[in-house]
Amino acid sequence: MTHSSRKDVSVLALTGIVTLIGLPVAGQTMQQAQLGRATYQSRCSNCHALDLGGSEGPPLSGTNFMAAWGGRSARELITYIEASMPPGNPNLGEVGSANIAAFILAANGAAPGDRALTSADTFSIRSVATGRQVISLQGAAVSATTASGGGPSGLTLAGEVKNFVPVTDVMLRNPDPGDWLMIRRNYEAWSYSPLSQVNAANVKDLQLVWSWAMNEGGANEPTPIVHNGIMYLANTGNIVQALDARTGEPIWENRLGPETSNGLGAIRSLAIYGDKIYLATTDARLVAFDARTGKQVWETRIGDTSKGYANTSGPLIVNGKVLQGMAGCERYKETGCYISAYDAETGKQLWKFETVAREGTPGGDTWNGLPNLLRAGGDTWITGSYDPTLGLTYWGVAQAKPWMRAIRGTGNQSTLYTSSTLALRPGDGSLAWYFQHVAGESLDLDEVFERVLVDSGEQHWLFTIGKAGILWKLDRRTGKFVDLKETVFQNVFDNIDRATGGLRYRNDIVEQQPETWIPACPSTEGGHNWQAMSYYSPAGELIIPLSQSCMEMYGRRTDPKEGSGGMSADRRFFEMPGTNGNVGKLAAYDVKTMKELWKIEQRAPFLTSVLSTAGGVAFVGDLDRVFRALDAKTGTELWRTRLPTAVQGFPVCFSVSGRQYIAVTTGNGGGSPRQVPAAIVTDVHPPANGNGLYVFALPENSRDRTQD
């Protein structure tokens, strides 16, 4: 094809999946763009999304991308990718980086040429690309028919769980000591097991008894669910498996798909109720499977994935209703974000609660007059908790978006119900109360994480901690503020009202301007993130995984139109002052006094939730591949082992035939808790693959074994 004839080219089809319309380009072939697309999907889409619209990372298509890169050269784009991507592990090489750049140019309207793009090309991106977002995702990129990269899908292993016992509401309220029926084990979100066979005296004898390779790709952060000796496991790529929890023998497998997920692609938990297993897929569906056979029973669409909606939290079952949060709420669209409930038998939607107050509704006047289209954020990407006695379910709501108030145009208004705790009535989804932790949050230091419910005499408390590292204590009956504790160094709030919990930002944060760097501690890694704390009830203490890093944030001007929005900020990271480079912190706090009881600091961040047990042991894993057991009362290390890659996910404890087991997963992905250390903890090098499950127990003939 000649240069002149290239001017007539208007459509470039990439294997039937991506259709791109554009203008002549000085150098880029269709084959190169195809190669770049494949690499992009496997290496880049977790941060920048499948459609290049941005997620944890900035958008790579459309007007916002063109505003940032249109005046720069193709060489600069290739060089930047080669030097910096993926963060902390830039190993794409010059050819791979050029291929990705070719795909990005094509995705922004650049037409194909007859030679490959290289780092020698100095033409400006704006000279060949329009920035028109004309990608349509079809077929293999998003279809369940390619749940395994083009391999088999659906029920790929047929089998049957024998002697299955249906799970009742009574079981969920008071689970069998040997079961682990939901994320964090109980409605109160304790991440605590009443099993004591493994204890502080004998945990040193713990040994690996079986392991299981998991699907690669995406962010591996699951909670294995265990009931009556059967483990149900969610893999990346929307794969559900049933395993014999004693031996690891597979029973059934359903590869629902899609394998390639928009955004982070984490599946943090399944749910079990009656005779069904429930999966919230990464592409915003809710699916029920027969727990005995793995066959699909029903499927419900929660949100339109073409608008960016997704899931990362698992469902919560309350009185026959499947409660589900939502992610992917960062882009501008007329519809907002919500928590919703579905009939456990049929999948019919029963109610939904809008987490971003809409125009003309209660709280709708807290968005500085913005139209609904520009009210973004309010994700609920962590599963809520539930108090059966009070009849309330508690959910954390993420920040408003774009991240910085100077970009989103909300001024100093509070942007309800973002950065809040919501107490909802699960029967109809109505609001009982809310407490906004940070009004008009402005630095991606959101408060979306676990809500832990603790009683002390007549006191009924709710504890939560967000990225600012502030441990909050509320009266869960009324939402009234009780107390707070700063767990890591923070400098974003220059005044904290100890009577009300009110926070005041530094003046430069309040008065921020677009395209100006703002320093902040902690960083978006968070003082605390998705790795859940544990309530060790025998000592009345919360054991919390924390992180210590700082950042500067730069708000990028954003086109106020549908499909735009997103995070709209750049970040650069650095070590937190006074930590001696120790990004990881694990600490215990007394629930009555909020006093710090003990702490551990280390270079590598902790990447699992904490699991504590009645045996006086707390388990936690880290980026440096170490899984360890600690004395829950003192933090003293009692046992450790090193696994093939970063230890990441939600450890669980269960028993089968009188033997206690500890299970933990390894994996990659994980959002800011992985990306920030990749930038500042460059001396820790976990392999980039190795998703797996590892199950430990005491030796069969151990004298310390007793029946639980």
Strand order of the largest sheet: 3-9-8-7-6
Given helix and strand content, the structural type is mainly beta
| Cα Rg | 25 Å
Helicity level: 10-25%
Supply the number of helical segments: 10
> How is the biggest beta sheet arranged?
5 strands, antiparallel
In percent terms, what proportion of residues is strand? 25-35%
| Low confidence ranges | 1-25, 135-149
Please state the overall shape, judged from the principal axes of the Cα atoms. globular
Total number of beta strands: 43
Measured between the Cα atoms of the first and last residue, the distance is 75 Å
What is the structure about, briefly put?
With 708 residues, this protein is mostly beta strands. 11% of the residues lie in helices and 31% in strands.
Can you characterise this structure?
The chain is mostly beta strands. 11% of the residues lie in helices and 31% in strands. It has 10 helices and 43 strands. The strands form 12 sheets. A 5-stranded antiparallel sheet has the order 3-9-8-7-6, with no helix packed on it. Strands 4-37-38-39-40 form a 5-stranded mixed sheet, with no helix packed on it. The longest helix has 15 residues. It is globular and about 70 Å long. It starts with a helix and ends in an 11-residue tail after the last strand. The N terminus is likely disordered.
